[in-house]
Design brief:
The complex is a heterodimer of chains A (244) and B (265). Helix content of chain A is 34%, strand content 25%. Chain A is of the alpha/beta class and 244 residues long. Chain A has a six-stranded mixed sheet with strand order 6-7-8-3-9-10, with helices on both faces. In chain B, helix 3 packs parallel to helix 5. Chain B is globular. The chains are: A alpha/beta (244), B alpha/beta (265).
């Protein structure tokens, strides 16, 4: 369980997040959305402990994340950004996956077997000796995903992870989302909302909306292409059921 | 016009682009698509001359490619990579001062206006801007030297709906002055302003067609996204309903409405 208690974040006089209160369950699939500049990425950085709230606190399983050591924090929470290059540390794909595991002080033989299994699971075994910086944008994203997943965090935050991916890679990420019990996905893509269970809308640093997604889908609140198509047909007095 | 003839690019004996022959035209918005790793960004860099080609030719038949390349503005995937000045004004002024234009002030202001930002931005640090604003400033820093070609790598990724709408307005206006070449995989929201689509896969050219003669099935088979309305029309075609290839949901719905009217008569 992640609890945010009156969390604010300021840069100078500018309030990026304004006294946010929020409870996030680990086994819930959470979608966070909102326009550019709403504070979404700041929220992700706060949740992953990379930046510190100006006011308020964030608790994971009752512990203040600012007081946790980085290694136990990484076991609780992993984050994947939009720009994978910012997260590379080593010069080969397999080392990239091993790096996080080494920090968790896992025995060497286990590190090797976890690495092999993870590379296979993400279909990137053939890239293992390649330099991560030389890979295509989508492949880079998979390498980061694999290296975070290998560490087995309780919850993974995806900060606009699919923005630069093509359809095939997106499908890989989507099927990965379906396998997970819970996640926090930050996205502006309506088509990704149905993968979640709860939708949180941020605007101007405040939570505008926090509701279960299935209800929103039913009443057409979420403007996926499918919903827009159905609505336009209904407006023309045509039953959308005929065109499914 | 810019013409690529049998262009090959290889790095460490690995082919990134294989035998690409392709034309780009002024006053067109030309979209390049392809799966991750297809060579889209490499193609863009080769056109600009950022990376050497291993063989083949890139020419401008009625002009000089060196001249055309000088007047080519390339917008990278991550705009903050391009910033190195302290204020938005200085950032936008780099291009025109490199070209030794005399009316720098005027060019900066007009570029800023084109990307729909007001003058209060001029003294701000480019690094303090939001993602969408950074994109617009990066674009303004290209527009300020009055390019003949604009090359953009994933210009819509990361933009919200408002940002996309603004970008569309800007592109439509720019089309009258220059040739625009875009690399994008999520292009649905731009579809009704695109003139030509080129698909590449594994470094090879699959097709380069005008928007109304695009073989959408091929794009779909290769695993790239196609607009919802076209996908829907394909599914309905399998059920015996012929709706063509509507580019937008509006177009699709209008076709269905027309069919329904025909039935009620």
């Amino acid at each position: 369980m992640i609890e945010l208690n009156s969390v604010s974040y300021k840069i100078g006089n500018k309030e990026i997040l304004k006294s946010i209160n929020l409870n996030l369950k680990k086994d819930e699939k959470i979608i966070i959305t909102g326009p550019n500049g709403a504070g979404k990425s700041t929220l992700a950085l706060l949740l992953s402990g990379i930046i510190k709230p100006t006011d308020g606190n964030i608790l994971i399983d009752g512990m203040d994340i600012q007081k946790m050591n980085p290694i136990s924090l990484r076991k609780k929470i992993g984050i994947i950004f939009q720009e994978p290059e910012t997260q590379f540390i080593t010069m080969s794909v397999e080392r990239e996956v091993m790096f996080g595991l080494q920090n968790l002080s896992i025995p060497v033989n286990e590190i090797i077997s976890i690495t092999n299994r993870t590379l296979a699971e993400f279909g990137i075994e053939h890239l293992r000796k390649r330099n991560p910086f030389d890979l295509s944008g989508g492949e880079k994203q998979l390498v980061i995903l694999a290296s975070i997943y290998a560490m087995g965090p309780d919850i993974i935050i995806f900060d606009e992870t699919t923005t630069f991916l093509d359809k095939k890679l997106k499908k890989k990420i989507y099927s990965f989302w379906q396998k997970l019990k819970g996640f926090i996905v930050i996205t502006e893509d309506f088509e990704e909302f149905p993968f979640g269970e709860r939708l949180i809308v941020l605007e101007n640093g405040e939570i505008q909306f926090n509701e279960k997604i299935d209800k929103l889908m039913e009443n057409g609140y979420i403007r996926t292409s499918e919903n827009i198509f159905k609505e336009e047909l209904r407006n023309a007095n045509i039953n959308p059921e005929f065109y499914q | 016009m810019i013409s690529l003839t049998n262009v090959n690019v290889s790095i460490d004996r690995r082919y990134i682009l294989k035998n690409i022959s392709l034309d780009f035209f002024e006053r067109e918005i030309h979209l390049i698509i392809g799966p991750t790793g297809a060579g889209k960004t490499t193609l863009l860099y080769a056109i600009k001359g950022f990376i050497p080609i291993s063989s083949g030719n890139i020419t401008s038949p009625r002009s000089d490619i060196v001249f055309e390349r000088e007047r080519m503005g390339l917008l990278f995937q991550f705009p903050e990579d391009m910033f190195f000045k302290e204020t938005v004004y200085e950032e936008i002024a780099v291009g025109p001062s490199n070209f030794k234009f005399k009316n720098i002030n005027e060019l900066v202001l007009s570029a800023l206006k084109k990307v729909q930002l007001d003058e209060s931005y001029l003294e701000r640090s480019p690094f303090s801007l939001s993602y969408g604003e950074k994109r617009r400033v990066a674009l303004a820093s290209i527009l300020s030297f009055q390019p003949r070609w604009i090359l953009m790598d994933e210009p819509i990724a990361g933009l919200d709906w408002e940002g996309i709408k603004i970008l569309k307005d800007i592109l439509l206006e720019l089309k009258d002055e220059c040739g625009i070449i875009l690399v994008a995989h999520r292009y649905e929201s731009l579809i009704n302003i695109i003139n030509r689509i080129t698909l590449i896969n594994k470094g090879q050219l699959i097709f380069s067609n005008q928007i109304h003669s695009v073989p959408w099935e091929i794009i779909d088979e290769i695993g790239c996204e196609i607009p919802y309305s076209i996908k829907k029309a394909m599914n309905l075609r399998n059920k015996g309903l012929e709706l063509g290839y509507p580019l937008t949901i509006r177009e699709l719905v209008n076709k269905i409405i027309t069919i329904n009217k025909g039935r009620t008569k």
